[in-house]
Amino acid sequence: MHNIRSLRGIGDTRAKLFEQKGINTVEELLYFFPRNYEDRGFSKDIAHCRPGEELLVKAVVVSEVKETRIRKNMTLYSMTVGDDTGIMTVTWYNNRFVKKIFKKGDQYYFYGKINPNSRKKEMLTPVYERVGKEQFTGKIIPIYPLWGNLTQKFIQTVMSEALEVCGEFEEYLPKGVIKEYKLCDINYAIKNIHFPDTFKDFETARYRLVFEELFMLQLALLCKKETLKGVKREPFYNTECMDEFLALLPFEMTRSQKNVCMDILSDLKKDVPMNRLVQGDVGSGKTAVAAAAMYVAVKNGYQAAIMAPTEILAGQHYGSFCEFFKETDIKICLLTSSTKKKKELYDEIKQQKYDIIIGTHALIADSVEYANLGLVIADEQHRFGVTQRAKLMGKGNDVHTLVMTATPIPRTLALILYGDLDISVINELPPGRIPVKTYAVGEDMRKRIYLFLEKNLKEGMQCYVVCPLIEETQKSDLKNAVEIHEKMKKLFPDYNVGIIHGKMNPKEKEEIMMRFARGEIRILVSTTVIEVGVNVPNSNIMIIENAERFGLSQLHQLRGRVGRGKNQAFCIMFAHGSNEIIKKRMEIMCTSNDGFYVSEEDLKLRGPGDFFGTRQHGIPELKIANLFSDMQILKKAQSAAKKIIECNGYPGNIDTKLYEKIREMFREGIVSN
Ligand code: ADP
Ligand code: MG
After folding, report:
1. What is 437-592's CATH number, 3.40.50.2300, 3.40.50.300, 2.50.20.10, 3.40.50.720?
2. Residue 426 CA: which ligand 1 atom is closest?
C-alpha cells in the first residue's frame, strides 16, 4: 500500500481532500473511477465543426491573443487558429495566462465546445496541448467527479502517476469465476477504466469491475445469511394471540398487511431468528404490522423494542402504540436522548417493568440493558447504518429482527440486494385514501400558488413548505429555509408560521412538531427533517422549493406527509432548470403516486456512484455498478457468488484471499466475526 502523499502534487491539504472520499492510498485512488469520458481521439477538420459540438481540433495559431474587456470582472481573450480546411476563433474568459502561452505558428490540439450561439466558428474555453507534447488529447480522456478545489487536469495527472507508482494489483477473484464469466485481468481493468485506448477496451474493463463489485457484495450478503443460519433459538409457542391483536385495532387490516403478519408469524414460530424486511409505501400501515409482531413477542413473555430514526417519529410511535394497546396490560415506555431520569428508566427496563420499548438511537446506548429481548424492529431502516442495526440485535440473545422501509425497490433488485434478508411487501394502501395531486411549476406560478394556499388556510387546513438542507444554502440560488420562513411570515401575517430544521436540538424540534400537530402552527417551513413518518392528517398542502435538488424517492417520501386525512391533498414542486433529467423526474412525480414505480424510475435516472441515491435505498455505496442498467451483470454475479458458497461451504473453505478481501471491503459489519 502506498500513501497518496507519495504522489507528486499531493501534500497534506490535498490528501485531506482525498480522505473525505475515503481515499488514503494510491490503490484506493485507483478505485475512484471516472464519471465520464471524452473522446479526444480524433481531430476534426475545422470546416466540419458544427455549432454545439464538443470536439478536438488540430490547428496552427495564426494570430496574437486579443484582449477585450467587456465589463468589470470580465475580459475575453481570443485568437484565430487554422488548419487546411478553414479558420476559427478560440476564446477564454478571464484567463490572461493564455497571452503568454501561444505563439504564431505553433501547432496545438484544442478540445472544447463550438459556440452554439455564434455565427462565426468559435470554440469556447478549450483545453489545449502542444502537438507532440500531448498527454490529455489525442486519445480517450477520463472525466472525474470533482470536489473541493480540485481540477480535472490535476486528477487526471495524479491518476496517470498513480498507475505508474502502484505496481501490480493482486488478483483475488477465483480463477474459475474469471474463466467462466470471461473477465479480464485486474491490472488490465484498472488501467483501462482510467485510460482506455479504445471504447472497446473500456467496456471490457468496466464489465470486469462492475462484476467484481457486485460479486463481492453478493458474497458478503450470502456469508452473512449463512452465519445466521447456524443460530438456533427458542421458538415463540403462543401464536394464537395475533388474532387477539387484530381485534384490538380500530380498523381492519388490509389484505397485504395481514399477509405480512402471517409471514412474520411463521418466522416467529421457527427455531431460528427471524431476519425480515418489510417494504411498504408511505402510509401503507407498517406501524400496525410492527405492533402486531410486538404483541406476539410480549404475549410470549419477551420484551420488544422498536428503533426510529428521529425523536419526532419515536414520539409519534409511542402515541400510536399507547392507543393500540390501551385495552391491554402491556407496559410501554419511550427512550430517546432527551428522556429525563434515564437511570431510573434503565433500571426499570432491566427489571422487565416495560414490555415494549420505543426509542431512537438511545436504545442501543451501552448502558441500556434489556431483561429479555425477543424482538427488535428498525423502522425506516434506510436511515440506519448496518452497524446500528447489528448493535440493536446484539442487545438480546439471537433475537428476531424486523426491518421496515418506505423506500421500496423493485422485487428482483430487492431479492439480490437484501440477499441476507427475507422480504415481505405491503403493496396496497388502506381504503379511502385520495391520491395526492402533484404539480411541477415555475416561478411564474408563485402568486397563484400562494392564493391557493391562503384559501386552504382559511378553510382551516395546514401546509408544509420544504426546502433543501440548510447546510447547503451558501449557494445563493437556493431558497434557504430561514429566508423562506421570513417571507412566509410577511405574506401570511394572519397565520402562525413555524420553522424546523436539522440544526435545532431535539427538544426544539419536538416542540415545533407538537405545535404543528396541534394546529397551533399553520405553515411549517422545514428542511427534510420531516421526511420520515410524521403524521399530521390536517395538513393537505406541501410546497417543495428547489424540487430539482431532491431525489425522486425522497420527493415521494416527502409527499407522503400529506394526504393522510379526508381532504384532497396537493404537492406543489417549484423546479428550476430545463435539464431533461429534471423534467423527466418532475413528470414521474406528477403522474404517479406509486412508490415502487417512483423508486424504479429513480434508479433508472441515476448514474453510478450516486452515493446519496443509493444510501436513500439503504444499499451500500457502489463505485461503478448501476443497479438498473447492470441488472444482467448483477444476476451473473449473484449466481457466481451462490456457487462459491454452495461448493465450498461457509466459512470453511472459502479461499482466504477472497475472504480477507470481503472483510476488508465490508468493514461496516455485513460480515460477522
Ligand atoms: P407507514 O407505512 O408509512 O409507516 P403508518 O403505519 O404510519 O404508515 O400508517 C398510516 C396511517 O394509516 C395511520 O394513521 C394508520 O393508523 C392508518 N392505517 C394503517 N392501516 C390501516 C388500515 N388497514 N385501515 C385504515 N387505516 C389504516
Ligand atoms: Mg412509518
Report:
1. 3.40.50.300
2. 2
Going by alpha carbons, the residue nearest to atom 15 of ligand 1 is 285
- Ligand 1 centroid vs 617 CA: distance in angstroms? 22
Beta carbon of 557 within 6 Å of any ligand 1 atom:
no
Atom 17 of ligand 1, nearest CA residue? 285
Find out whether the beta carbon of 323 lies less than 6 Å from any atom of ligand 1: no
Fold match between 241-426 and 437-592? yes
Are 370 and 355 in contact by the 8 Å Cβ rule? The answer is: no
Whether the CB-CB separation of 668 and 221 falls below 8 Å is answered with no
Choose among 477, 468, 441: nearest CA to 586. 441
Q: Which long-range contacts (CB under 8 A, 24 or more apart) does 600-605 make?
A: 600/409, 600/410, 600/628, 601/552, 602/551, 602/552, 602/553, 603/409, 603/410, 603/413, 603/627, 603/628, 604/628, 604/629, 605/552, 605/581
CATH number belonging to the domain at 41-138, selected among 3.40.50.1170, 3.30.559.10, 2.40.50.140, 3.90.79.10 = 2.40.50.140
| Torsion sign (Cα): 433, 434, 439, 443 | negative
Closest Cα to atom 24 of ligand 1: 430
- The architecture CATH gives domain 241-426: 3-Layer(aba) Sandwich (3.40)
- Closest to 624 measured CA to CA, from 142, 2, 24: 142
Q: Is the CB of 284 under 6 A from ligand 1?
A: yes
Residue 245 is predicted with a pLDDT of: 94
Q: How far is the CA of 267 from the centre of ligand 1 (A)?
A: 23
Strand stretches in 406-442, DSSP E = 422-426, 437-441
Determine the pLDDT at residue 257. 97
Query: In this predicted structure, what is the pLDDT of residue 670?
Result: 45
pLDDT of residue 611: 38
Q: Is the CB of 280 under 6 A from ligand 1?
A: yes
DSSP letter at 43? B
Distance CA 538, CA 256 (A): 26
Is the Cβ atom of 253 under 6 angstroms away from ligand 1?
Answer: yes
Which ligand approaches the C-alpha of residue 285 most closely? 1
Radius of gyration (C-alpha) of the chain in whole angstroms: 29
Check: CB of residue 540 under 8 Å from CB of residue 562: yes
In whole angstroms, give the CA distance from residue 144 to residue 31: 12
Report the nearest atom of ligand 1 relative to the CA of 280: 2
Residue entry with cell 448483477:
634
Mode of pairing for the β-strands spanning 275-280 and 400-405 = parallel
Burial 628-645 (b: 16+ CB within 10 A, else e): bebbebbebbbebbeebb
Any ligand 1 atom below 6 A from CB of 41: no
User: What integer pLDDT is reported at residue 463 of this predicted model?
Assistant: 95
HSE of 238, CA atoms in CB hemisphere, 13 A: 15
DSSP 543-571: EETTGGGS-HHHHHHHHTTS--SSS--EE
Q: Whose CA is nearest to atom 26 of ligand 1?
A: 430
Contacts of 266 (CB under 8 A, 6+ apart): none
Contact indicator for 233, 397 with CB cutoff of 8 Å: yes
- Stretches in the chain below the pLDDT threshold 50: 472-474, 476-477, 609-617, 669-673
